[in-house]
């Protein structure tokens, strides 16, 4: 039974994948370990909680296959967690989406490691010094439109490396057709009203498409009249290229919009070029290149002034010089030296002078922020690298400054420079370990209502498991203050946190551990207390005393001898018994069975009888050989572990359907002593054998045809 507090979350999950119903509890602001075998639905629990937090309609993707497309079927649901609005899940998907990006070890590492409240407060103090400067931008009602127009003008005239106007630029092509638009040639004079319209490019495009039908009939393809001038219709698209005309319209609009921002003589020169019938002269090209350069300079200054902040000044050796260089010297920008431009530039320069007048205050705040950043970087680097060292990894991380922000990169002690594609160098275990520690920092940044760790440490050896658990849940930088659900098929975290003396280090997490069991889609949990964790020897001894069946007792007793490496006469007798040998023997190195002497058999049985007083070797051997008896014993026990061992005994005696080698190997290895922990839960209380394994064993047992009774033996 689970002991509940009134403050616990009591969660019910229904109709999600293989789970028809699951009831689990979560202790708030504590570590909740849910231990269970693979295949019982742990990942489904994690996914259901995450999807529910994102919106209950998202649960539809978890509809069990048997309900999909079936009208009136029950729908997935999660109840008891309405307070949980934000869930952060560590699983393989998290590792693939957020960790080991090509240029940084964690996606948005700046947000996780640098952009703390302290960092933001420092930025706010620096930004306050620029408030009046920024206000001048917002106070200039027409500035945004002017900047956009200047940008369009600059982009219309691209420059070559030599600084000349590129002949392929949009603006130059537009000017090439300008004179023909302003002065429509006589040959197409009939179309003047269309060419002079607000959108001549669209009309020219339409007209050009129509000329493809001129040869079909003598009638006009546009109006069907028979007296059209086909020569003039063809000449329109020959004279006017629609893209150039469209660019001309945009250029004309931009120049008209900028108007008074140009010095008068420059504006007049631009306007005259919009009506010139001649090709662009070298002098005009030089004029345009100079104009474009001045526009680019103005836009660059305005952009830098808007961006003025800690990030743009942090690496400056001389802040005074940076501010001085940002002033706009309008008289030197002759093409833009107008009253209209001055009305914009002068207030900006004045505010910049005010900032420069507080240069000592600015320097002080920049210095404080730089120190804050250095301290934040050191704390985060040291935290990650301390774990990597303690876990025996030869990697380290470094947070480096980039022009726009910061990023965390991975380095190896034997390589120069950082690893651009860290994931291709790290092993599966190394990636998981790295990712878990980065996830811990991500949690502290995001502050979720629930943290879910989906089988986080099962792939590590014991030393690394403990190092990771310790890092995650011990110390001020850990996630011990968060409501955390750890789903695992690995009992070692339970042993480390619940049983071992080191468990005291995790007391602040108020850890609880539960055993999860799935029976026919119904998931239940049982509290695991310190007293539930025993040595395998203790488990065997307890179950020998608790069982009423001599064969079951023998299964546990043989395991007890095996785990204690007591492989003498008693072990040989029990091994022979479970293989249903009529005469007990010992197996030599060559695999040959040598029968025990009567004296040795008696001595061994005397020792066995101390644990199983009623054992009759011949009787139990005959039981194992009888499918009816073994099946009855199989059905009589509710313990999955015992069912599997009975099945193995039947297979060893060659009458049960052992099936394919893969299943047999799985049963032998998964539930054999070599793969069982020294410390474990008693399988009679915490049955970890999945339903499908028990069902498969039963199916193979019952696929055997019962032997026909011999004559005179009765029913």
TrEMBL record:
Gene3D superfamilies: P-loop containing nucleotide triphosphate hydrolases (3.40.50.300). SUPFAM superfamilies: P-loop containing nucleoside triphosphate hydrolases. InterPro entries: CR006_AAA, P-loop_NTPase. Residues 349-472 form the Protein CR006 P-loop domain. Keywords: DNA damage, DNA repair, SOS response. One of its GO terms (biological process) is DNA synthesis involved in DNA repair. Coiled coil: none annotated. This is AAA family ATPase. It comes from Antrihabitans stalagmiti.
